[in-house]
């Protein structure tokens, strides 16, 4: 599988799943645009290191995915956008009656609306190039719900809906749009929570992972960022060209329950 000659824009990709997906796309030969809302020396070093490791062009472009204009500017600045991975996302947990309006607005803007704006800006480029792949990173929470995550669950269900509409609007073109729905993924953010939780419940690392974090994940294993990246690379392959408008769960059986 080679993605040589293709340019992939991955939103929210200076850590976690976005970075893992960007690395797998670069490994498959794609040039990559990394993104987040920061603009630090580390962000640019990440791009330079990835470029040296995989022998592809990697650029870092700052753009705040909570702002419609910056979402669209990211795609314009990227010049080419053959592969768009909408990954940027945040979380906030609270009951609906106490959920702060600004948190609701931020989650809807970053986790859902940004994908609309980047897709709108990317489609003309994909049409001009005669090829395109849109991969939206939704969640098991795009298909199921949990209490206290109203904005996140609403946004992720929205992403799944947007995925279907985008697929229908491009169904007769060489463009596909799908959503990956991860269960619990071992990102640095999640890894960092393990020691505190071990201390809080006086549990072993294994018990915290199996009985606290992975309570709803039947495999009792995290998905990895490399596995998510591999799924994205598959969705960009020729074998996946009739796969559009659907969801692929990478959740250890969560949504089979
Ligand atoms: P993370 O916090 O490691 O990564 C989030 C990324 O989004 C970071 O690069 C961050 O800089 C970026 N980001 C946040 N706000 C932004 C903004 N305003 N503009 C631009 N970039 C912004 O988290 P993660 O676990 O890697 O999550 C990535 C995606 O995967 C999210 O959409 C999340 O909902 C989804 N997801 C994660 C899990 C999991 O278990 N980790 C499970 C299912 C879905």
From TrEMBL:
Transmembrane segments: none annotated. It holds the Pfam family adh_short_C2. One of its GO terms (biological process) is monocarboxylic acid metabolic process. InterPro entries: 3-OHbutyrate_DH, NAD(P)-bd_dom_sf, Sc_DH/Rdtase_CS, SDR, SDR_fam. SUPFAM superfamilies: NAD(P)-binding Rossmann-fold domains (SSF51735). GO terms for molecular function: 3-hydroxybutyrate dehydrogenase activity. Belongs to the short-chain dehydrogenases/reductases (SDR) family. NCBIfam families: PHB_DH, PRK12429.1. This is 3-hydroxybutyrate dehydrogenase. It comes from Donghicola tyrosinivorans.
């Amino acid at each position: 599988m080679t993605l040589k000659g293709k340019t992939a824009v991955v939103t929210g990709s200076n850590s976690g799943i976005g970075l893992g997906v960007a690395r797998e796309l670069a490994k498959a030969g794609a040039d990559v645009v990394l993104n987040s809302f920061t603009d630090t020396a580390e962000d640019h070093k990440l791009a330079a290191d990835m470029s040296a490791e995989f022998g592809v062009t990697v650029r870092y472009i700052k753009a705040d995915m909570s702002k419609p204009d910056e979402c669209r500017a990211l795609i314009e600045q990227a010049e080419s956008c053959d592969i768009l991975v909408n990954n940027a996302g945040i979380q906030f947990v609270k009951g609906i009656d106490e959920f702060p309006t600004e948190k609701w607005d931020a989650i809807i803007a970053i986790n859902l609306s940004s994908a609309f704006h980047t897709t709108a800006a990317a489609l003309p480029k994909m049409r001009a190039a005669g090829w395109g792949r849109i991969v939206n990173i939704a969640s098991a929470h795009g298909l199921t719900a949990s209490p206290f995550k109203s904005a996140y669950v609403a946004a992720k269900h929205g992403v799944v809906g947007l995925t279907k509409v985008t697929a229908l609007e491009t169904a007769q073109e060489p463009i596909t749009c799908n959503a990956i729905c991860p269960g619990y993924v071992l990102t640095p953010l999640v890894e960092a929570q393990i020691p505190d939780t071990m201390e809080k419940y006086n549990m072993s690392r294994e018990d915290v992972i199996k009985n606290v974090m992975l309570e709803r994940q039947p495999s009792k294993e995290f998905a990895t960022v490399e596995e998510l990246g591999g799924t994205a690379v598959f969705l960009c392959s020729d074998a996946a060209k009739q796969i559009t408008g659907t969801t692929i769960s990478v959740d250890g059986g969560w949504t089979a329950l």
